[in-house]
Give the backbone structure.
Amino acid sequence: MNESLLPVVRKAILTVLHDTGRSAQAVESGHLLSTDIGLDSLDLAQTIVLLERELACDPFRSAGSSPTLRMRTVGDLVTLYEAALSAATLPPALDH
């Protein structure tokens, strides 16, 4: 996992926690989104919207992202966006 996206993901999670009246806490790549951080499905959706705006990337529409990737940890979320951003920067395949 590339650690360069971790601060962006961390900021989005902390923003959602703040906006929902919860105190900020440590957000590390190995933390479980639901158990350790306390995100529910709506919180996760809000986090994803923030990340899509910040990164100008929708990993669920990207050809390079795996729809079967489970987003259990902060690191899973980082990996999802890394794959989508990598796929978005690859040149299109040439047909011969």
User: Anything to note?
Assistant: The radius of gyration is 14 Å. The chain has a mean pLDDT of 85. The longest helix spans residues 74-89.
